Amino acid sequence: MTTELLAPLDLAFWHLESADHPMHLGALAVFTAAPGTAGGAGLLELLAARAAAIPRLRMRVRDVWLPVGGAAWAADKDFDVRRHVRRLPLPEGEFAAQAARLAGVLMERPLERGMPPWEMYLLTQRAAAGAVRTARSAGAGDMPFAVLVKLHHALADGMRAVAIGAGIFDQIADERAAGARRVRPVPPRSWLPGPWQVAGLARGRIEELGRAVGIGASVVRASRLDPRGMPALTAGSSGTRRLATAVLDLEDIQRIRRVAGGTPNDILLATVTGALRRWMLARDERLPAAPPRALVPVSRRRPGSPPGAGNKLSAYLLALPVAEADPRVRLALVRRGMLRNKSDGPSRGAGAVAVLADQLPPLAHRLGAPLAGSAARMLFDILVTSVPLPRSTLSLGGCPLREVYPMAPLARGQSLAVALTTYGGRVHVGLVADGKAVPDLDLLARGMTDELEELLRVESR
Predict the structure, then answer these.
(1) How many Å apart are CA 233 and CA 99, to the nearest integer?
(2) Do 383 and 414 meet the contact criterion of CB atoms below 8 Å apart?
(3) Confidence of residue 112 (pLDDT cuts 50, 70, 90)
(4) Which of 47, 50, 373, 380 is the most buried (most CB within 10 A)?
């Protein structure tokens, strides 16, 4: 049986999981049903066939004897795609609200660890008979449907998750079927390194250990022994999940950028900051004296390189100036903080704690995961991540993708995660929160659109 050892960071995500903090990524993709397309049963069959054709989705995690404490990916000889792909009809009502509510409930449930760690759900609308007759008479299938994808973080980081999940779309599946992507043969090489290679490996190992020591020292300096701040973000875990969504116009972001400078990501981070401020004021909460910290993941993959297996992540730590009243000053402070992070690079500073995980042996991840998970609250308050998508128009069974909302997991001690992705000229925002700590998540989602409008207004003066 073919096996592949989990990389250290993948192993860390595998062991960080608990019943209250499942470590899977998610995405809620919303489609417009095209006229003449197959119904729910046909879409479910197509979705299952596409998922079953993705080799990575046939792999499960199993323990190994060596290295001690390690684990490996192995082909699941009992793989049955029907155990992973299911159809769930939504209750009657507004589709987007019902889909978001059910997605939040489904995100609460950890993936079964004895099987390949992923699930997909086809969410279809249950319409009244009169509505069905009206749609048929109009000759168009105007009822939307959605696909919820859950992938364990050990299986993939954001970029790899996109590469895996994209296999369900018509464009990617057709390209694979046509043989457009061919794997180039790798010439054989000796398992025994030469003397120059040994010297290079030793030098590289010394440099890695030096970076690890520097990161560790930065983590210690940045850790807060008494991480008080926004009460909702530091509330105890209930194990529940709530999802809220927002859509931002990419052209508005570019207009602000042309005036204020910076990057689109700077503007999005400033938008998150302003939305948090609006949310706190609406709750009559006192603005924190010390700004909350965001962990902003950064890919360590080289631009243009293939996605590859496993996680290749680092991150930046960024103070979010929620106490600042002027939106232009908030944006300037965010830009300054991100410029400072980028000048240091993604392999330095306390945010690069994921790089530190690569230097630990498997047994340390297995035994130290509870302690490491609990330490997240001492380092940051909120996760804000951007997930890239292909720029081409996507569809499933001829039904165009119209919205896609990424979802990030909550670490222990965290009550809110913000994920963003750009598709079709719009930025789709997925907010995942502890359901009891943040029952008014929709208010925060509205704050995202309100804040971007405010930024556009003040920067257009």
Answers:
(1) 25
(2) yes
(3) very high
(4) 380
